[in-house]
Write a structure and sequence with these properties.
alpha/beta, TCS_response_regulator, 5 strands, globular, CheY-like_superfamily, phosphoprotein, Rossmann fold
Amino acid sequence: MIGDKIIHLADDDEDDRNMIKEALEEANADVYIIEAENGLELLRNIQDSEDLSETVVIVDMNMPSMNGLETIQALRSDPRCSSLPALVLTTSNDPKLKLEAIKAGANDFFTKPTSIRVLNEIANDIVGRFFDFGVA
């Protein structure tokens, strides 16, 4: 069963998706990850979602069909998705690309790290910042 804290993850590289998913699940096992190979698939997945109140979107920048910038722009133009946290996690560390992503509406921009430890730190940051896992 899908939990109430969902991350929509779009990345065309299956190995990267698996590593990111693993890091996010390690950060908190109660987060449910819905994977997509591109932005278009991610948008379709979001349209099929009933409740977006506890949803975060993570996109790669370079994907076929719809890249990360186009995906974020589409999210921001949809009233239902306009306030969803949208993050870029990509191989590029180009400051111009980061600025473009932020201008398009990204809440944050991360460069994919070369170590699992740093990826785990990014995953912990994302989960800790955008989801409330308060003790009942």
